[in-house]
Amino acid sequence: MTIESAWRTAARRSGWLTASAGLAWLVFAGLAYRLSGVVGLEGLSVAALLSLLPGWLVFWGVAAVSQASDQNGQSMAVLVATCVRLMVVLFGVLLMKSIRPDLGLKEFHVWVIVFYGVSLMVETLLLVKSLSKSGSVGVESMEAKTDLASVS
């Protein structure tokens, strides 16, 4: 993968993650408003942003190191993505708790959990999708080498 195609892949993945977060926000906005009013929408929006930021960081980080990555490197990317997401979201929740202590369980924390799960799922699917593509290419090239060895 060239560095230019890695950046395009990161942009495409970031777009899919953003679209999925936007769709989830639209799906849950009515419920958040019904549970907590405008404060619920505020918590929902902050939770969406807290889940988007680490996803974007991971996709652009994977693009930056894509030249050196192999099958194990991409597997490691999924692990690093999970750790980055956890740290950013945890720090964000603690920061919000100190800035806005009035945002409680139904106004904020439940939406962090929902967006954490949704964005982690989308992020992992996008990373694993590239893993399966690169894995199948590796298998095909291995089969081609085996066929060439058996012919000679």
Percent of residues in beta strands: under 5%
Kindly state the percentage of residues in helix: over 70%
- Helix- and strand-based class? mainly alpha
Arithmetic mean of pLDDT: 80
Tell how many strands the DSSP assignment holds.
0
Shape: elongated
User: What is the H/E order?
Assistant: HHHH
Distance between the termini: 31 Å
In the predicted model, the low-confidence regions spanning at least 5 consecutive residues are: 136-152
Query: Counting H and I runs of at least 4 residues, what is the number of helices?
Result: 4
Most strands sheet: none
Radius of gyration: 20 Å
The structural domain count equals 1
Feature tags:
152 residues, mainly alpha, disordered C terminus
Structural notes for this entry:
With 152 residues, the protein is an all-alpha fold. The chain has one domain. It has four helices and no strands. The protein is elongated.
Compose a concise summary of this entry.
The protein is mainly α. It contains 4 helices and no strands. The model is unreliable at 136-152 (pLDDT under 50).
List the helices and strands and how they pair.
Elements: H1 3-36, H2 38-64, H3 71-99, H4 105-151
